[in-house]
Each structure stands twice: as C-alpha cells, then as structure tokens.
Protein 1
Amino acid sequence: MVLKLRLTKGRREALTGILFTLPFAIGFVFFFLHPFWQSIRFSLSQLKIVSGGYILEGVGLANYRTALVVNADFLRVFVEAVGRILIDVPLIVIFSFFAANLLNQKFKGRTIARVVFFLPVILGAGIVLQMEQTDYIMGQLRSGAVESGVLSGAVLRQFLYELRIPEASLDFVIEAVDRIPEIIRASGVQILIFLAGLQSIPRSLYEAADVEGFTGWECFWLITLPMLSPLILTNAIYTIIDSFTTPTNPLVKLVRETAFGGGGYGLSSAMGVLYFLAIAIILLIAGAIISKFVFYEE
Amino acid sequence: MTNLDLRRKRLIGRGASLIWSLFRGVIILGICYVIFYPLIVKIPSSFMREVDMFDQSVQFVPRFLYLENYKMVWEHMEYPLAFWNSLKLTTLVSLLQLAACTFIGYGFARFRFWGRGLLFSAVVFTLVVPPQMIMIPLYLNFRYFTFFGLIPEPGINLLGSYWPFVITALTGTGLRNGLFIYIMRQFFRGISKSLEEAAYIDGAGAFRTFLQVMLPNAKSAMLTVFLFAFVWQWNDYFFTSIYMRNAKVLPVMLDGVAFDIMTTAHYISDQYKSILDNTGMVLFIVPLLVIYAILQRYFIEGVERTGIVG
C-alpha cells in the first residue's frame, strides 16, 4: 500500500517535471536540433529555391572543398578568428578577475564604478558595436592613436625588444596592448559573475586567516583564488562562446554574407559546420586544461 | 618592541594603504575612460557639420551645436514609429522569454524525471552552438512554415511578422535563452523546499504552487533575466534582420539610415555618413541608458543575489 502510494507520487513528480520542461523539449527539437541537422545536410548539398519551397541536390563534400581551398577569404578569416580567441580569452578572464577584486573592495564611489563597469553589457552588443567597427570617425581616431600615441606598436616593440623579451611573447604583448579597449568592453558579464562569486565566499574564512596572521597577499592565493577557481572555468567557457558568436567577429560576418550575399546556402552552411567543430574542439581543450586547476570544496 | 617601532610600523601601513588607494583610483578612472570613450566620441561628432570633418582646427569639440543631423536622422529613421515598434517587439519578446524560461527553469530545478540530465545538457548545448550555424534552416523553416507538417505544403510565410520571435521565445530557444533557463534553475535550486511542501499539504497543485508561492519569491532573479532579455533583444540585429528584414524597428532602421539618406536625399561622403551614423547611434543608445539608469540597482544586485554562480 505504502509502496504503491510512493510510486504514484514519484510518477506524478516525473509527469509534472516533464510538463514544465515540455516547451523547451519541443523548441529544442524543432527550432534547434532539426535546423542543426538540416544545416549539416545543406552543407553537403546545393540548395535551389523553386516556386513554393526549395530542393536539395547532393554534392558530397564539394562545399567543404570550396570553403577550404577555393574561397579566398574563409581560411584566412577562420585562422584569424581562432587566433584572436586564443589571445582574448586569457586576457578577458584575467582582467575580469582583477576588476571584480577591485570592485569588491570598499572605497568611495564604488557604486558608480560598478555602474560604469557594467555599461558595456548594455551597450556593447549587437548593432552599435557592429557599426563602430566600420565607422569612419572611430577608424580615424584609431589610426591617429597608433601614429601619435606613446604605445604605438613600433615604439613598444623596440622597447620590449631591448628588454630581451622573447620574440614569441613579443607579438602577444603588443597584440594585448592593442586590444585593451576591446578586452575591457567584453568583460562586463564576466566581472559580474566573479563579483557574485567573491561575495559568496564566507567571511569566516578571512576572519580565521586574520587570526592566524595571514597577510592580504596570502589570503588572496590561499582563499580567494581557490574559491573562485570553478568560476574561472565558467568564465573561460562563457568568453569563448561569446567571442565566437558576437556579430563583430569577422567569421560570423563572412558566414552571413555568404548566405545572403549570393555565395550560396550550401557553402555558408559548410562554413558554419567547420566553425562549430572548431568551437567544440577549443571548448573541450580549454575545459580539460582549466578543470585541472579547479579547486572543489568537496 | 618599543613604542616608536610600533608607531613607525603603523605609519608605513597607512602610507601603503594611501598609495594603494591612489593607484586604485587611477586604474578605475582609466578603465571608466576606456568604457566611455565611444560615447565621448559619438556625442560631439553628432553635432558636427560635414566641413568640420575636414577642418584641422576642429577636434572633438564642434564649432557650434549643429542640430541639422538630428533632424535628418530622426526623419529618415522614422524614429517615433521605429521606437514604438521596437518597444512593442522588445517588451513582448522579453516578457515571453521571461515567462517561458522561469517556467522551464523551475521544472529543471524541482522535479526528478527520466531524461532530465539529458534535456538539461541540451540547454547547455543550445548555448554552445553559434546561432549563425542554424540561421539558414531557421530562416527557411519560418519562410515555409508547415507547423511541423500540420499545415499543407508549401506552408505559410511567417517572416516579417512577430511569430518567429514569439514561437522561439515561448519554447525557450530564443536569443541566449539557454542562459536564462540556467539562471532560473540555479535560483530555484537555492530556495528551500519548505514553502512548497506547505503549499502541497494545503492541497495546492504544482502549477498553483509555482504561480502563487514560488513566483513572488523569485522577483529579483526574474528582474535580472528580464533586463538581460530586454537589453539583448533591443540591441539584436542578427535575428531581427533575418526574421523581419523590412520591419521598421530601431536596429534595422539604424543600420540603413545613411543609405536611406543617400538614396532619397543627396549624395553623402564617408565623413558625413559617419556623422549621421553616430547621430543615429546616440538616438539608439539613449533609451537604453535611461532604462539602465533607473534599473541598474536591480541589475547588479540581482545578479549577485540570484546565485548565478551556483
């Protein structure tokens, strides 16, 4: 009797759960999985619009060949986009970690500083960012800053070269300095996540450390960093996804222009699939590397 | 350990903290400058005349406030109409996304059922796949929409209407909806079960408990999700330009404003196009700034309290 009652209760719970999540299950199948599958099919065929619909003609791997061998832009833009992410992700994670620690301290004007730091979340998305990229005035100022600025690439390169910094890391440093504004503006959500994490660290840990006579430096390495390490993984993954899908990403633009600018749906789909594979591989590698350093309480 | 030593130590400590404060202040001001920089450029240049662009003596600050740009952009963007359309679309879509994601997130947080883990990894999967990859099939699906085979071929054309937005919002597959489901699930998991148990004992069903007991407690998380949904939808050009290419909404009108002036009024140089674009961007951003100024408190505190970090 008791057993039967429990069973029905469990079943009812399962049924309610399925009902609650059913909208997503439907949406996932019809507006995600199906398009996903279709896009793989498109990439293997040529799509022709006929009256009242479209037909597919199988062409094997021709679209992939076109993307990788024939198309002049794809491979270059692809390598650039992936390379940029490898530079951006560590910088964004480190910067947002640093900024969150800064904003977590008590000082005058903290509220205003926070409001400003998260402003890019509001403004730095979509159409405005896209237009700024090709904007004439912004472009003028950018090149003007390079010509007259103290941190112009050539001067900095010379300076670092004389410091005997290895060639390989030289490019990284110069690229990094060049991208400071972009990096700051792409860090809003990540700062928010780290800040939330910082505030969830129990105060008692720091109090205990204080009693033991730990310095602020030791507290940072022994408490703050390990406690936030799971969020480093979260933020790295978020950043990778974010920079891969932002409309200012040149590869995203290329995929889009190919589709609607006459390059063919098949070719565009093939580019999309290759792009997705690259994201998946990078995410897996990044996840595997970072999770080695993550500290879990349990 | 003399008294003098102690005093000296304290003095050094105070000096160090003063230096750190200064250092911190400089860094924060610098970062704020970088963030405001695009705005600092946009606002003055929106008041410039075309000749100012060629005049070397005009840098940053325009000679006088030239309002003609605003008049022109305002008219060609059909600003009042586009604003109203954007407001309607954005409010509708973000409210639907909020409702759907709260509902779905609650289901994931509270009920055990077969396939829950798998379905939740599907949520994460939707976040990882770039929307560009499924853009063409989605476009064609809504162009020849057969309602999963219920409507006879060739189906109906939903492009140009709100329906593609409404349908994807209701099923939690809209713009970054996976993130919203994730946030709501984390939030509901953090709430103690005792409230619901009390409601169940009183004989309320799962849906009534959700509506009457859980929702009032989820206000802060819901506000955060709503703000994100609203802002991202307002900014969205990607889906809007696919689903409603000719709609008079702000992102679409902003993108085409210079071209529109070029084709209907007169030829414009690159420099003047840039002035007009910047004027349009200011007009586009202002409503967002107003909303952010009013609600920023909830935005920041909300994220901190929702337990987004698990």
Protein 2
Amino acid sequence: MTWGVRGLMVRFGEHLALAGVSLDAPAGRVTGVVGGDGAGKTTLLRCLVGAVAPGWGEVRRPESRRIGYLSSTSGTYPDLSVEENLAFAATAYGVPPVEARARAAEYLERTGLASARDRLTGHLSGGMRQKLGVIRAMVHRPELLVLDEPTTGIDPVSRADLWWLIARAAAEGAAVVLATAYLDEAERASWLLALDEGHALAEGTPDEIAAAVPGTIRTSTERPSGDASRRSWRRGARWRTWTPGAAGSVAPQADVVRPDLHDAVTVAALARELAVTAAGGGAA
Amino acid sequence: MTALAETVGVLRRFGPLVAVDDVHLRVDGGEVVGLLGANGAGKTTLIRILLGLLPPTDGLVRLFGLEPSRETRRRIGYVPQGLGLYDDLTPDENLAFAHAVFGGERGTLPQAIRPLAGVLVGRLSLGVQRRVAFAQALAHRPELLVLDEPTSGVDPLARARLWETIRETADDGAGVLVTTHHMDEAEECDRLVVMADGRVVADGTVAEIVGDTRVAVVRTDEWERAFAALETAGMSAALVGRTLRVPRVAPAAVEGALGDVPARVDEAAATLEERFLELTLSGGRGGAAA
C-alpha cells in the first residue's frame, strides 16, 4: 500500500506553507523529508497524519488507529513512567496487553531503556525520551509511521538506537516518513524530498538527486570573484562554485567535482535564491 | 607558538564521578577544532573548564598562555546552542544592547542580512538568527571562538553561509572550537577530538580518525529478511537506503548469518559516524550500531 500526498497547498494567513507538494510513502520504505527551519516539513507531516487540513490537494492515509505519529514536541506524558506511557498507548490503540508487553520489552531492551522502565518520563534525558516517543508511536505496528525530526538535538549513540527502531518498523512493513534538517541523516532514507520555503527543491533516491545536478561544480582554494562569488559556497577548507548549464556538458577536469547530495541540495537552494533575486524578490 | 587554549592532563571529579579524565587538548590560531562525544562524554565539563567557569580537580589549563580569569574570558567569543539573543528585539537592537553592556566594538551584520536589521529576531529564520548571534559573538574580535552546534536546524545553503563566517574567523587568526553531535558539522572542521567516558579516544583529521576501519555491506532485494536474520545472529545492522551496513563483523561471518537470504556482501570504508560509534561503544553497552 502506498500512502502519501499529492499537490498539497497549505496557507496560514498570508503565509504559503506548502506550494503544491507531492510525496509517496510506500509500505516498507523509509522516506525522508529534508529541509531547514521553515521549509514546510512539519506542515507536510501534519497533513499526512490528518492534523492539518490542506487548502488544496489529496491525502492518502490509513485510518487513524493504523497511524503512528511522533510530533517534534515529543508525544510522551512526563508524569507517567516509561512503562505506563507504553501501556497507555497500547491500550488506546487496542493492542492485546500480552503482545504489547512483549514488544515493548524487546524495544526497550534493544535501545538501552530497559533499566529506565520505572522512571518518570519527565526525568529522562532528551535522547531517552525521544527513543521512548518513537517506541510509543510504533508499539501498535502502524501501517504509516510519521516521525517529525526524531533525532534533532540527540547524541549519535541515541541516534543509532533511533535508527534501529526506524529500520525495524520498515522491516515489519510500515511506511516510514521521517523529517530531518540533516543531510547526512537524510542520506540514509531510500527516497528523499528536499523542501525549501514550501517548495520541492529535489526528489528521488539520494543518488538520483546527486546525479541530477544541472551544470558543473568546480572546487578552488580561493573564493572566485565577481558574479561567480554569488554561486559559490564553502565546503571544508575549499570553495565550490556552481555554473548553470546542462549536466555533464564539460569534459572531466581536475577541478570539476562529482556532486554528492550536499552539493545537489545546495545548488537547488542557490538556483532558487538566484531566481528569486532576479525576479526582484527579497534576499537572505 | 603559544596555544590559544590548552589543557594538560586535566581531570575533573564530581564526587565519585570522574567527568573529565587526563585530557590533553590544544587549539591553535587559524584552526577549527571539532569536539565530538555522546552525552555524558565530558564535553560540556571540558568546555566549562576551558572557559574558566569551573576549576579542574587536577591538571593544567592555559588560555592564551595564562591562567583562566575574567581577563582571559574577555578574549573569548561564545555562541551557545540557544543563541542568547532577545527575540523581542531586532538584530540592530540586540547588537546595541550587547555593546552597551559589554563595551568594546559594536557588532556589524553581514551585508546579506542587513536588510533584516530592523525585523524582530523572533520573526527571522533560524539561519539568519544564527548569523546575528555570530555577529554578536565576533563583535569584540575574540581570539578564541567557542560554538555549540553552530548550524543545528538550518538548511544546507544557510549552513554553508555560517561556515563561511567560521572559516573567515579562523583565516583571520582566531582559533575555533566547535562542539557537535552531527557529522555534517564535524566534517567541516580541520581536526577532531573525540571524547568517550571523560577521555580523549581519538584526535586527528577525519581521515586519520576513520583510518582503515571497515564495515560489511549487504546488498539484497530482501533487506527486511536480511535485517531479521542478522538480528537473530546478534549482529547490529544499520539500514542505509536499501543496503545494510554491519560494523565490527567480517563479511564471511555476515554471509554465514544471512543463511539462505540471497545477498551480496562486500566490505567498505566506515563513515565518520560508524567510526565514532565504534570508539564510543567499545567497552560500553555495545547494543547499538550506526
């Protein structure tokens, strides 16, 4: 089964939060939505789970009891213990208690939370609370699991545990949709949608997105001068400069780099920024 | 050359807990050093010792060749993760306020965000807010800049712009110490220091730290079955796209664990994150993988 959205348009007052965005979320796949603050990731996810009604567009989702959702503000009760939080979610979703307990025990054990099962959730570290939030969202084996920036602010060890849970949910057949601000993390999704100010910047597998960069990217030790400086950015100790044009139109040269996902998303954002500036829109 | 910041055999106890244990760290002018570690690894304690906010139980701390003091703190710029800006003031007003309180030179905004100088900070995107916080921290021309997850939450282009500022600061001779949980940021640094359980467990460039660490890579049309088979065998597989990456296990052993699941198993160089987890988890819980 493929869930998802098509041609989604959402307006909050004067602000256009999503401008015709589409996304497929097939069963068993981890689908990533990547973008910075204000890109529209949360609005897209909230439309997908039915928490926001789009002004225009189509949403395909399972019935609400077959959805698992972790909002960016964490969906756990601080004054319940870890175990009570999971028991409450299991009851609310109608999971038989024996089954719920067995599944919860396995997930808690595997993610290093077993020794914290009696602790109040409000007393957990951010990483532990976030892991619990994901477990709570998947304890009823949802068909669609939607996670809004589950790893933001989390250290790499907890992040590894979270990714184990995500893989586990997908392996069990859930369609997983995950928002992140980080490209190194987005690279782990099977399929990716990059958003910028409510617009789709790029979509496809991370490799497809990287291969589809138009024009050429060159690397240099100094920032280029003149017009090219507006198309350049810093990557490590060196500069990269993008020249628009057809992909692969230049013969291989030492200073031409093969773009990765970082380059691709940066170029897409640059192209949009330059187009907006050329059209007389606001900068920055 | 005198190091801008240096710790020699620094140790810090909190009761029975050793938070920082025999740490040698050095930041020179012109370099960007990344400090990596899981929660509880001792990063925050070390930074507080370096800033002179916390005395070490043992060992030597030097800032600009001197003992940490109010005087040395004046020569440091610090941007916390929470940025320390007033949401209900504009960037201009924030800079004016900081100038009035701390003295020194008044901060200036980068050209690209000057049109936004009169907009309330709370209404600006996070990327622009971070650039304002940088401008504020750089106003007194610090010789050492300490940044906590400096580009968290911003898009790649905004991140590149922030790194331009960080790099310019280092190119002008300042030393920069960046703490981060994200490999995107870590890979921008000249050199990394990895901490685990209060100790420095690795120090060097990304290439030096990753070294020749390898992982087994499983390519299969049935990753779900492969994932389950590896779990049963007690191997932690990390899902990346539709491939599985298994650290610390030889490909032959992975093939054995896969049984009748049709798959191709190769070896590949580990990523920084995989190497980081190996360094952090060795001797620890060992349950998690990348």
